[in-house]
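hey so i finally got around to running the thing on that chain from the lab meeting. sorry it took forever, my laptop kept dying and i had to restart like 3 times. anyway pasting the input first so we r on the same page abt which one it is
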Amino acid sequence: MVTIYGIRNCATMKKAFDWCTTHNVEFVFHDYKKLGIEQEQLLQWCQNLGWKSLLNTRGTTWRKLTPTQQSLTAQNQAVRLMLEYPSLIKRPVVDTGTQLLVGFDPQLFASFVK
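ok and heres what got predicted. didnt touch it at all, straight out
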């Protein structure tokens, strides 16, 4: 079963949901805003993908952080911020059971999500 992690009201999430629906891919949605994210899971993602690839530095949440908060140099700092502000996690994070994908790219989805 495919699990899609993110925030419901996000344009990129809508694209991922629409793609899955169009391609008859069943998925479970995990909403960071409502359900949060476990530290262990976030650490596992960081280990597999790297914390920099998970950190959303383009959104309004990032821009609202202080310069001190934005001056991350280590994974533990990034994980703390992403736990406190789940909107800082790039969207979507897709767990296919064997692969983790970050972001929405139709070609990557087609090759990994079945």
